[in-house]
Amino acid sequence: MPDLLLELRSEEIPARMQRKAAGDLKKLVTDGLVAAGLTYEGAREYWTPRRLTLDIRGLEARSRDVHEERKGPRTDAPEKAIEGFLKGAGLASIAEAHVHSDPKKGDFYVAHLTKPGRPTEAILAEMMPQIIRDFPWPKSMRWGAASSAPGSLRWVRPLQSILCTFGPETEEPVVVDFEAGGIRSGNLTYGHRFHAPEAIRVRRFDDYVEKLEKAFVVLDAERRKEMIRHDAENLAFAKGLEVVPDEALLEEVSGLVEWPVVLMGAFEEAFLAIPPEVVQLTIRANQKCFVTRRQGGEGGLSNSFILVSNIEASDGGAEIARGNGKVVRARLSDALYFWQTDQGDLPDLAGLKGSAESLGLDLARPLDQRMAKLDALGVTFHAKLGTQGERVRRIAKLAAEIAPRVGADPALATRAALLAKADLTTEAVGEFPELQGLMGRYYAALQGEDAAVQTAIEEHYKPLGPSDRVPSDPVAIAVALADKLDTLVGFWAIDEKPTGSKDPYALRRAALGVIRLVLENRLRLRLGLMMPAGDLLAFFHDRLKVQLRDSGARHDLVDAVLTPESDDLLDVTRRVEALAAFLATEDGQNLLAGTRRAANILAAEEKKGTHVAVAVDPTLLTEPEEIALAVAIDQAESELATALASESYAAAMAALAKLRGPVDAFFDKVLVNAEDAAVRANRLALLTRIRTATAKVADFARIAG
Predict the structure, then answer these.
(1) 287/333 same-domain check
(2) Has residue 434 got a pLDDT over 80?
């Protein structure tokens, strides 16, 4: 079976777009081939900074003939109907049609149509220009003299060449001939733009990869990543160091080079006085370099960094490393200035006294000054929710209220909440916004804040996503909850709720953050007391369902336990866990079946208006099985009340389990719809007690299976 090789080569494609673009190319081409009636054995995409490549194996040489029978009108139909049929089927005359007979409908015309297959290269030549023209780049550009012409080609960067060959391994492949944006396809590619810029003639994928490698281009991005990882680790190890892992940077850097050459640079050790996160982010953001540390991770960062070049320099890379070191030192000088400036006094302290007094801040402390400045500036949080200073006051008040419920000191929670946003006005966070919280912790430590306050300042934004760590220190928990609850309650109050896929204020993330804080720290909080809006509690219920389903809980059990008033999320979770364990037993499954039977009988009788006694009359119980069931219900209700009062849900399920046998025996031996109306009403009352008892644990009607 023939193979297809396709390469679209351009100027540098942004690293963040490469992987998706290669995947888009694969999907567009393979979807087009399948739509044309072609099959293939496998397809794989590749990418470098300057090319997108597609290797499709086992592609059919031509599409199959398609045979179709198109039914027409009856043979005695009006002439116009027959003419319309001939035109639609593409027949020259009725003589080209066939006559079929139907016992009920009589004779009618049928057109036997055959659409012949087409050579694959013809199909490709027809579809590729449109794929290239409509390629879904997030951003694209026009270039050259043709850029002013209407409808000229747009591409992420100027497209330079198109390679497209097709054929079996045993024969010389053909060039699939087409043109896009004035560029005609061929069998030529080009190697590294500095080391091997000459044209390279290729036949199919295997020799394409081999010739590119000789021309200083590593086609496989994963291989480039491993080369960088391996060489970086070896280079660091030789110096007694190890590379600080950074998978995101590794992915990005592998998209910046076609021929990775790993080098080591250095900067002055004096810069290591800066927090390591600032050093790493400075070097990463500005130079796309990796930082190193002593082997074993002891002693913090080293002053050596790893860079990845795209060329093999004649001096072994010494000048490249020196140049990168020069830029790194300049950027670290800026970072050191930010770090030192943030530790000094602000120049306008006199104008901050009012804010400091209002918030209870100490202007002798630099971080307090920054919080006073944030308040004095009147920075808007949201037009309808006030300033950042007003928000901090709300969070501090709420954190103090939450603190005793989570085992935290209210004074420490208040102090942490007051300082949590202070680093937003620091120079370091102004340069690197992603360090907010972390820099606050560093500055809090420098001014001698309690360790719990330091931790809370850093962690109050957490968790930021499903994989982010959840704070466990009580003070951090209190401030993190207060921050998220203030956001949710505030935006609910101004009717800025998530709609569909739109959630501009990340309220779903905030709710999931609250849920994870509660569940993972096993907290007992009544959220309803903190949230006046009832539909906000319903929003939490929806997020809780998502969280529990993601952790493996059955959705029907969550629905069975949740009520509109459920505001203790940990309690809901524990009930779901106990219910799942109970239903995994034979007693649980049988009681579920018995409870459903009781509920169905009651529903049917209630619909008919059948009288149901208000309470069970022991004197009307005559059958041994109904007497035994009444006794079992009395005992279960008593044990259930005790278990629920102590929130021992395993014991509650055990109490219900004792009903299984009496319920089964009752339905086997006792006729519920007795002829005597009083007896019937009494037995229905007995079923009502079963439904009422189980409902104290869960709504069994919502349980599937």
Answers:
(1) yes
(2) yes
Residue that is written with structure tokens 């896009």 in the block:
180
Listed as own residue / partner, the contacts of 194-203 with beta carbons closer than 8 Å and 24 or more positions apart are 194/310, 194/311, 195/259, 195/311, 195/312, 202/5, 202/163, 202/165, 203/165, 203/172, 203/173
Q: What is the pLDDT of residues 170-179, one digit of tens each?
A: 889 999 999 9
Length of the chain: 705
Q: Answer yes or no: are the C-beta atoms of 288 and 252 closer than 8 Å.
A: yes
What's the mean pLDDT in 618-622?
A: 91
The DSSP 8-state label assigned to residue 448 in this structure reads T
| Helix locations, 562-623, DSSP H | 569-583, 586-608
Residue 305 and residue 264 in contact, taking contact as beta carbons nearer than 8 Å: yes
Q: Which residues pair with 309 in a beta bridge?
A: 261
Number of domains in the chain: 5
Q: What is the CATH number of the domain that holds 380?
A: 1.10.3210
Residue holding tokens 């087009």? Answer: 32
Domain annotation covers residue 556: no
| For range 555-580, the mean pLDDT | 92
CA distances for 422 relative to 387, 437, 449, angstroms: 13, 9, 14
Q: Tell me which residue of 338, 367, 370, 368 sits closest to 274, measured CA to CA.
A: 338
For 189-220, how does the pLDDT look when each residue is reduced to its tens digit (9 = 90+)? 999 999 999 999 999 999 999 999 999 999 99
Helix (H) or strand (E) holding 183: strand 183-184
Mean pLDDT to the nearest integer, 346-363: 95
Buried b (16+ CB within 10 A) or exposed e, 263-281: bbbbbeeebbebbebbbbb
547, 602, 606, 615 from 609: Cα distances, Å = 42, 10, 5, 17
Could you give the strand order of the β-sheet that contains 261-266, starting from the edge strand earlier in sequence?
241-243, 290-294, 301-309, 261-266
Give the CATH number for residue 652.
1.10.730.10
- Separation of CA 538 from chain center: 22
Residue with tokens 């295997």: 206
pTM for this one?
0.81
pLDDT of residue 126: 96
Q: Is the pLDDT of residue 103 over 90?
A: no
CA distance 97 to 91: 8
Asked whether the beta carbons of 264 and 321 are under 8 A apart, the reply is yes
Which percentage of the chain shows pLDDT scores above 90?
A: 78
Please indicate, yes or no, whether residues 53 and 76 belong to a single structural domain of this protein: no
Concatenate the DSSP letters of all residues of 25-92 into one string: HHHHHHHHHHHTT---SEEEEEEETTEEEEEEES--SBPPPEEEEEEEEETTS-HHHHHHHHHHHT-S
Q: Which domain holds residue 249?
A: 221-342
Residues 356 and 482 in one domain: yes
Give me the half-sphere count of Cα atoms (radius 13 Å) on the Cβ side of residue 218: 19
Residue position matching structure tokens 């951003």:
139
φ/ψ (deg, to 5) at 7: -135, 130
